[in-house]
Design a protein that fits this description.
Helix content of chain A: 25-40%
Keywords (chains A, B): DNA-binding
Pfam families (chains A, B): HTH_17
Protein name (chains A, B): Excisionase/Xis, DNA-binding
Largest interface: A-B, 24 and 25 residues
CATH architecture of chain A: Orthogonal Bundle
Number of domains of chain A: 1
Radius of gyration of chain A: 16 Å
InterPro entries (chains A, B): BldC-like, DNA-bd_dom_put_sf, HTH_17, SinI_DNA-bd
Shape of chain A: globular
Number of strands of chain A: 3
Oligomer: homodimer
Strand order of the largest sheet of chain A: 1-3-2
Organism (chains A, B): Brachybacterium nesterenkovii
Structural class of chain A: alpha+beta
Strand content of chain A: 5-15%
Chain lengths: ~80, ~80
DNA sequence: CGTGAGTCGGGTAATTTGGGGC
DNA sequence: TATGTCCAAATTACCCGACTCA
């Protein structure tokens, strides 16, 4: 049973789901290293764990996936 | 049975909300064990229950989340 | 006072990072 | 310019048994 206390969200809580580099890489069918390069070049937002590993917002990844899937090349 | 949950303090005193290892882990998309290592290495402050379990200040967790943010250059 | 979920510990795989070169 | 691969070091994930929490 999960704890059910009234979490007094200090401000605005965005339960943003995060994806690991491997997960994003599989979605795009590229190497995890490529995903890292996207993040480094500012093409993709990223969050850092306290150990330095990157986590990517699922919502943005999905948006970028949809942006280029139904199109033949580019409209 | 009466439960000792953090009441929404209406005045002074820092109503510091404490998060469980599992909650912090979900926010960073890491394993609860990883959060424990962060606390052990001093990267994250923690409170100990009388039984030895760790609790983490929500405010600090949120601050660290924002600190590791890297947005896209184009928004 | 039981019960189930969560969190200790430690150990050992798997993943990620960063740089360099193709 | 963009992606894939090799490398070593660092970080993280999963395994267990025992204990704590609600």
């Amino acid at each position: 049973m999960t704890r059910e206390v009234p979490l007094p969200e200090t401000s605005e809580d965005a339960p943003e789901t995060l994806l690991t580099p491997a997960e994003v890489a599989q979605l795009f069918r590229v190497d995890p290293k490529t995903v890292t390069r996207w993040a480094q070049s500012g093409k993709l937002s990223s969050i850092r764990t306290l150990g330095g590993h990157r986590r990517y917002p699922q919502s943005e990844v999905m948006r970028l996936l949809d942006a280029g899937k139904a199109q033949r090349e580019d409209s």
